[in-house]
């Protein structure tokens, strides 16, 4: 039997410690943890399977704090066998053979988010869910800032907060978006946030977790180690989430909830009843559209009121009206010949694509598909068949998703087309649409294969739209 992984449980003196950062990546976490460790005197080796040219942006950010060694384009035995500590990227599965090798050689393991949570002096609002967590986390931070509270936003969104740990005070509030990949290592140090927000739960990342139960277990880490004084903000409309074990206070949000501490959604009105804070909020002025975004707003309001103990309706309404959403999340990116182009590239789950389709009353020409994450696509195919005017399919799952939509549809619509590239998909959707239609990129699948990330996918979509507008 392989040795169990051993995880760092407290912040040590890093001076002179031999640390291997496994996975520099391009999203900021690898850069953040490398900078943090080098500045504290650690002897850092950065290793990544990607070559230097693919990591050029990240390497540029380390010019002023160079690690002791860079081993790119592959891993070396010595980097794991001679390390005191290995920092594991969220992209690395915990059954990875290099981690087993490091453990056998006596190394401890940690992650960028583990180090931050072990060292953070402030209260933390953690946000997870199969969809909606980025928007909800960003909205919480925006509402806190509007209320005058010093807050920080990090985790699976924005820059790494680890290098700025010394700037964070005990009276600040930290908002962390937490993916299942980040929550797995946090389970090993028995950490959960002071306020935990769960937007929803649906099958995802089964290619990584293997089973739905394993994915759910990882997600439940956000609640598992809470104490009696901590707070759980849960989606009352999601029966699975509503049934998750909770130790602290529970605040629910949803359309049907009207008992206990809650935020009730009544179309464009929120009724807030949390401890001694009661308020009625009108959300008609909020730019975020769609039923799913009303739930995101309710979750964010619940978290902010719970964390601050205050519900100032005028202040919250003003902040909501100014929040413009995040890039690649139902982002209107232009119009041409009377068609509206919307970039929802962050949609990497079927549920997110269904929510995007529900957000529009105008006919939708959908661009969907991508890499296979092992989830059931039949429900998505049914929703596309009933809601979309036409659909262009991209990526590895494109042909299979097209077959499922054909089996589900009744009549001639939606028009279907398997595209050979994203540009081909956008142009097909444009040519087969009419004035007043929405051309929506909402893939419902992972980006890898055709793209380096969902950001790359969204940027390529925007570039194609710009070319169309100039023609």
Automatic annotation (TrEMBL):
**Which positions make up the signal peptide?**
none
Q: Which residues bind ATP?
A: 129-135
- The residues covered by the Mur ligase central domain are 127-304
Per its UniProt entry, what is the enzyme's top EC class, as one word?
A: ligase
Question: What catalytic reaction does the record list?
Answer: UDP-N-acetyl-alpha-D-muramoyl-L-alanine + D-glutamate + ATP = UDP-N-acetyl-alpha-D-muramoyl-L-alanyl-D-glutamate + ADP + phosphate + H(+)
- Keywords carried by this UniProt record: ATP-binding, Cell cycle, Cell division, Cell shape, Cell wall biogenesis/degradation, Cytoplasm, Ligase, Nucleotide-binding, Peptidoglycan synthesis
The EC designation for this entry is 6.3.2.9
Which Gene Ontology cellular-component terms appear in the entry? Answer: cytoplasm
Q: Which residues form the Mur ligase C-terminal domain?
A: 328-443
Q: Pathway listed for it? A: Cell wall biogenesis; peptidoglycan biosynthesis
- Where, per UniProt, does this protein localize? Cytoplasm
Q: Which InterPro entries match?
A: Mur-like_cat_sf, Mur_ligase_C, Mur_ligase_C_dom_sf, Mur_ligase_cen, MurD
Q: What does this protein do?
A: Cell wall formation. Catalyzes the addition of glutamate to the nucleotide precursor UDP-N-acetylmuramoyl-L-alanine (UMA).
* Record NCBIfam families: murD (TIGR01087)
What is the protein named?
UDP-N-acetylmuramoylalanine--D-glutamate ligase
Q: Which gene encodes it?
A: murD
């Amino acid at each position: 039997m392989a040795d169990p992984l051993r995880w760092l449980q407290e912040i040590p003196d890093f001076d002179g410690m031999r640390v291997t950062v496994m996975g520099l990546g391009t999203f900021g976490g690898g850069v953040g943890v490398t900078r943090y460790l080098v500045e504290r005197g650690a002897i850092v080796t950065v290793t990544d399977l990607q070559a230097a040219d693919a990591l050029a942006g990240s390497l540029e950010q380390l010019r002023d704090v160079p690690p002791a060694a860079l081993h790119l384009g592959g891993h070396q035995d010595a980097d794991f066998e001679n390390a005191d500590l290995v920092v594991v990227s969220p992209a690395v599965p915990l059954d990875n053979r290099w981690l087993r090798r490091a453990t056998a050689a006596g190394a401890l393991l940690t992650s960028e988010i583990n180090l931050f949570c072990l060292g953070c002096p402030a209260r933390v609002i953690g946000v997870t869910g199969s969809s909606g967590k980025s928007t909800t986390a960003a909205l919480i931070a925006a509402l806190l800032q509007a209320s005058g509270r010093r807050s920080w936003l990090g985790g699976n969104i924005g820059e790494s907060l680890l290098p700025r740990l010394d700037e964070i005070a005990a009276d600040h509030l930290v908002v962390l978006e937490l993916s299942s990949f980040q929550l797995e290592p946090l389970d090993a140090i028995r950490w959960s946030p002071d306020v935990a927000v769960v937007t929803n739960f649906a099958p995802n990342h089964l290619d990584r977790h293997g089973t739905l139960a394993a994915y759910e277990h990882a997600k439940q880490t956000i609640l598992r180690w809470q104490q009696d004084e901590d707070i759980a903000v849960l989606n009352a409309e999601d029966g699975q989430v509503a049934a998750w074990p909770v130790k602290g206070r529970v605040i629910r949000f949803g359309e049907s909830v009207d008992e206990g501490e809650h935020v009730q959604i009544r179309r464009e009105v929120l009724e807030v009843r949390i401890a001694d804070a009661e308020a009625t909020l009108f959300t008609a002025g909020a730019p975020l559209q769609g039923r799913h975004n009303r739930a995101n707003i309710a979750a964010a309001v619940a978290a902010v009121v719970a964390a601050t103990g205050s519900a100032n309706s005028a202040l919250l309404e003003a902040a909501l009206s100014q929040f413009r959403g995040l890039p690649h999340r139902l982002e209107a990116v232009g119009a041409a010949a009377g068609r509206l182009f919307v970039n929802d590239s962050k949609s990497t789950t079927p549920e997110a694509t269904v929510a995007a389709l529900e957000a529009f009353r105008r006919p939708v020409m959908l661009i969907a598909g991508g890499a296979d994450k092992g989830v059931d696509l039949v429900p998505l195919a049914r929703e596309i068949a009933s809601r979309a005017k036409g659909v262009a399919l991209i990526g590895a799952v494109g042909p299979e998703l097209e077959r499922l939509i054909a089996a589900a549809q009744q009549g001639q619509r939606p028009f279907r087309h398997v595209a050979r590239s994203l540009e081909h998909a956008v142009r097909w959707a444009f040519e087969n649409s009419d004035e007043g239609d929405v051309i929506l990129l909402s893939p419902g699948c992972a980006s890898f294969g055709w793209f380096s990330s969902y950001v790359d996918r969204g940027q390529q979509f925007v570039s194609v739209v710009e070319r169309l507008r100039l023609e």
